[in-house]
Specification:
The complex is a heterodimer of chains A (384) and B (598). Chain A is of the alpha+beta class and 384 residues long. Chain A folds into two domains: 95 residues; 184 residues, Cupredoxins -  blue copper proteins (Immunoglobulin-like). Helix content of chain A is 48%, strand content 14%. The radius of gyration of chain A is 31 Å and the shape is elongated. Chain B has a two-stranded antiparallel ribbon. The chains are: A alpha+beta (384), B mainly alpha (598). Chain B: Belongs to the heme-copper respiratory oxidase family.
């Protein structure tokens, strides 16, 4: 049935097209048959007007988009450096819109205005050094300003001051989940290598490293408001990218090396939920979900949960079949809540002890651990 | 030189006594015009595959995990059980779509077709410097296309690590099924492709330098030839680097080396790799990958320059500035690759350097855009379909190019990197623009290739629907990118945060499907006009360049008699000293005529 409908639609389309070509034929001036397939005055006229119409299309579509979809884009950065990025972005947007508006008008208006007529001769205007200097000079100056502002912001964001007091957190990527490791009271992460992965020590932390003794491994990321968090990223298998859209932060996670990014959250999760733009966005999303739920329930499927906003960490580098579902909830707490939350978490050392204690050692596990010892030796060398 | 030309003519006559067999004429031809047609038709076939793939995955994005019978028909029970697209085949479709469109359609299909067709014809040569190498080049390309398409049929599916094939994902079959034999075939295909491309490029360079006819100085070359020439140089400089990256990746995959891999724990075991770096691969890949963008767009801009000048009946504005900007773009294109890697983990200081070089490219690009617009000013525009596509190219090149200012700025790239904003940007600035350049070239030189005209009204319909749909697809995509939606997600339904983007995705897909289906108008026009189109006259667009001085019927050696001598630049349109509004390059200067341009 559907295929029949599709065929009917295609046939109708073909007829519509055939009629359209007829109309184009009829618009040609002069009675004489012209099948040279070269544009004549009639074509130039029609196409010139269409060019003008297309200009209107671009403008209307742009304005429509700005009105209708502006509310979708990321708003109010949740990190201290986010404003630097958003301000530069807004300045760049203003420039882009000015240039876009002017050039598209000129291009399409000229295409309309100077549509050809038989016997008319064009102006022979081959070059002008003055004009070339103007339109290479102006972009050069504008770009120089953008580059300077960009590099200033980039340097501030990317180079973490070693003296600055930060909280060190490792974000660990694997197909298709995120894990976090806190450095504990000493604020130094213990050494780690994938060759040391063993049982509950899923991140390959070197348990003999003194710095590792107070490390804490968790599956939900909590960070305190108002403190700069220094993230160190690792990956155990393929490239991933740790993308925190609301914090304007992103860094790839590369197997075999540690990458880093630091930012300071300035809104707790609760505060961010209360922002007027977010309240509106969540209401809108929930309206969509309610509608979808009604459809699902009618089909006998379970309804969708209502949505509350949470900061997210997404994977933004293709990493395998389930790349589209690699996410971790990020919670920004007040410093007090953060301390409380972290203090309730067991350290990795405690977890390893707990895991090793009750279970009798089986044959299979034994071979595993000898293998782990072998690779541990390589890992020691690798970590140097 | 003229005596030599005469000799060639004699050779040619001698040659003509041999009867061409079907095989030497249509298959293993060494005639550049036939090879151009072979490239074009292969490119179109690959283009159909590439565009259809994009329509399939766009349907999945608009209506995630819904059942479509067509998925089951095309992808089979394994990859689309009950008509629902599986997540690994989604990634495969995205990967192969990118590979086919960038390399097979917009590099080989565009450059291969028009460099082969136009270089000998426009510089006044009887053929390429080496017709044999040219033939080998095409057949290697054909072979690589066959290998690439055959990779669609291997059991675990084709390569699925994205067209950038970053290791370790592309190196480890444990990481994604497509990295098994599918990836092997991908690499083999690309190695063949690169060999084909290098043979072609060397041929173009040698031909342009050595075989120009008398009077055809470098500053009298049409801008098409300048673009093809510089493109070939970029190709020769950068493609070998991709070849070496591909070879090293083959070593890592098959022989256990660790160039790009280190410290990997996957599927419950530690792999032996130690000391390599995926970032090294990214450097090598983008050392080609970024110039590749210009390998795609420069020929399109060259074609546009020629078509806009001819159809405006005006000289291209700022001929020398155009050459300078092509050279500047070519030079800069080789030192900006790091802007794809701002957040790859490389030193942020390097990011600053690449921001600087990247934003510089905007200057020659702006010069080109303004020069095109000025060429239209006070012209006598003949709005043929080729001209519409050329104007369309300038429009999308500006729209897409401007957002490059955001992506090229490392600070702004942090938050839009790898989102749909990037997809919108590069599709407009190189995808759609280059495709428009290719269409413009086809509409303009179809009479030269096939001796017949394309139907103009079908051409108009083709352009307008494509133009509306191209904006309809890629303009809204900027917004969902700015909303933080990552690309290469099979579905967004796991993120309620993105639920409000679904309507936009449906709109995008609707435009994509309409635009895709309407390419049938072009295909019908193209293939029916080869046989039934109106017979072309010798110089239908009243153009100045030498290709229109050859007879409509193709012949070996291009010109029946001597090769014409060139007396002027190619842009003497509406020259006030002449009655006609065009003065072909082979028309001698009048007594006392002054050169009116720089």
């Amino acid at each position: 049935m559907t295929s029949l409908l599709v065929i009917i639609v295609l046939v109708l389309l073909a007829i519509a097209l055939w009629q359209l070509t007829k109309i184009f034929d009829l618009t040609q001036v002069g009675g004489e048959a012209d099948d040279s397939q070269i544009a004549n005055d009639g074509d130039n006229n029609t196409q010139g007007y269409l060019m003008f119409g297309f200009l209107a299309f671009i403008y209307i579509f742009t304005i429509y988009g700005l009105i209708k979809w502006s509310s979708l884009v990321l708003h109010t950065p949740a990190s201290a450096h986010g404003d630097d990025i958003d301000n530069l972005m807004n300045v760049t947007w203003v420039l882009i819109f000015i240039v876009q508006a002017i050039t598209q008008v000129l291009l399409h208006y000229f295409a309309f205005k100077y549509r050809g007529k038989q016997g008319q001769k064009a102006l022979f205007f081959s070059d002008s050094t003055k004009l070339e200097v103007i339109w290479s000079g102006i972009p050069a100056v504008v770009l120089a300003v953008l580059i300077l502002f960009g590099l200033y912001a980039w340097t501030n964001i990317m180079f973490v001051d070693e003296d600055e007091e930060t909280i060190v957190v490792e974000v660990y990527a694997q197909q298709f989940k995120w894990t976090a490791r806190y450095a504990g009271p000493d604020n130094v992460l213990g050494k780690a290598n994938v060759r040391l992965i063993d049982g509950v020590n899923t991140l390959g932390v070197d348990m003999s490293d003194p710095n590792a003794q107070d490390d804490i491994v968790v599956s939900e990321l909590h960070i305190p408001k108002g403190k700069k968090v220094h993230f160190k990223f690792r990956s155990q298998d393929v490239l991933h990218s740790a993308y925190f859209p609301h914090f304007r932060a992103q860094m790839n996670c590369v197997p075999g090396m540690v990458t880093e990014f630091a930012f300071e959250p300035i809104y707790t999760s609760d505060e961010y939920r209360q922002l007027p733009y977010m309240v509106e966005k969540v209401a809108n999303i929930n309206a969509i979900r309610t509608k979808k739920s009604a459809e699902l329930v009618a089909k006998g499927e379970p309804a969708l949960d209502p949505y509350t906003f949470d900061y997210l960490l997404l994977c933004n580098k293709i990493c395998g079949a389930s790349h589209y579902n690699m996410q971790m909830k990020v919670v920004v707490d007040t410093p007090e809540d953060y301390k409380k939350w972290l203090s309730e978490k067991p350290t990795l050392v405690q977890e390893v002890k707990a895991a090793n204690a009750p279970k009798p050692v089986e044959g299979g596990v034994e071979t595993d651990s000898t293998k782990a010892k072998d690779t541990a030796a390589i890992a020691k060398i690798a970590m140097k | 030189m003229s005596a030599e030309g005469h000799d060639h003519a004699q050779d040619h006559e001698h040659e003509h006594h041999h009867k061409d067999t079907f095989i030497t004429k249509y298959i293993f031809s060494i005639d550049h015009k036939m090879i151009a047609k072979q490239y074009l038709i292969t490119g179109i076939v690959m283009g159909i595959v590439g565009v259809m793939m994009s329509m399939l995955f766009r349907m999945q994005l608009a209506w995630p995990e819904e059942s479509f019978k067509i998925f089951n028909v095309l992808l089979g029970d394994k990859f689309a059980p009950n008509g629902v697209m599986a997540n690994d085949i989604y990634l495969a479709l995205v990967t192969i779509h990118g590979t086919i469109m960038v390399f097979f359609v917009l590099t080989a299909g565009l450059s291969g077709t028009f460099s082969n067709l136009l270089i000998p014809l426009q510089i006044g040569a009887r053929d390429m410097a080496s017709g044999f190498l040219n033939m080998i080049s095409y057949w290697l390309f054909f072979l690589s296309s066959v290998v690439m398409l055959s990779s669609l049929f291997v059991e675990a599916g084709p390569a699925s690590a994205g067209w950038t094939i970053y290791p370790p994902l592309s190196a480890l079959p444990q990481a994604i099924p497509g990295s098994g034999s599918g990836m092997t075939l991908w690499l083999v295909s690309m190695a063949l492709f690169i060999a084909a491309s290098l043979m072609g490029s060397l041929n173009y360079i040698v031909t342009v330098i050595n075989l120009r006819t008398k009077g055809m100085s470098m500053t009298r070359l049409p801008l098409t030839i300048w673009a093809f020439f510089v493109t070939a140089i970029i190709g020769v400089v950068s493609f070998p680097v991709l070849l070496s990256a591909a070879l090293l990746l083959i070593f890592d995959r098959s022989f256990g080396t660790s160039f790009f891999l280190s410290d990997i724990y996957i599927a419950g075991e530690v792999l032996h790799y130690q000391g390599g770096s995926p970032v090294l691969f990214e450097h090598l890949f983008w050392f080609l990958g970024h110039p590749e963008v210009y390998i795609v767009i420069l020929p399109a801009l060259g074609i546009t320059s020629e078509i806009i000048a001819t159809n405006s009946r005006k000289p291209i504005f700022g001929y020398r500035a155009m050459i300078m900007s092509i050279l500047a773009i070519a030079f800069l294109s080789t030192i900006v690759w790091g802007h794809h890697m701002f957040i790859s983990g490389m030193n942020p200081f390097l990011g600053s350097v690449f921001t600087f070089t990247t934003l510089l490219i905007a200057i020659p690009s702006a010069v080109k855009a303004f020069n095109y617009i000025t060429t239209l000013w006070k012209g006598n525009l003949q709005l043929n379909p080729a001209m519409l596509f050329s104007i369309g190219l300038v429009s999308t090149f500006i729209t897409g190019g401007l957002t490059g200012i955001i992506l090229g700025d490392s600070t702004l790239d942090i938050n839009v990197h790898d989102t749909y904003f990037v997809v919108a940007h590069f599709h407009l600035v190189m995808g759609i623009s280059a495709l428009y350049g290719m269409f413009a070239g086809i509409y303009h030189w179809f009479p030269k290739m096939f001796g017949r005209m394309l139907n103009k009204n079908l051409g108009y319909i083709h352009f307008w629907v494509t133009a509306v749909c191209a904006y309809g697809v890629f303009f809204p995509m900027h917004f969902i990118g700015l909303a933080g939606l990552p690309r290469r997600y099979y579905t967004n339904t796991n993120f309620p945060l993105f639920d409000d983007l679904q309507n936009v995705n449906v709109l995008i897909t609707t435009f994509a499907l309409i635009g895709g289906v309407f390419q049938l108008v072009f295909l019908y026009n193209f293939f029916s006009s080869i046989f039934y189109g109106k017979k072309a006259v010798q110089n239908p667009w009243r153009s100045n360049t030498l290709e229109w001085t050859t007879p409509v019927e193709h012949m070996h050696g291009n010109w029946p008699g001597e090769i014409p001598e060139v007396h002027r630049w190619p842009y003497d349109y509406s020259n006030p000293g002449h009655d006609e509004d065009f003065v072909p390059q082979n028309v001698p200067m009048k007594e006392g005529e002054v050169v009116l341009h720089h």
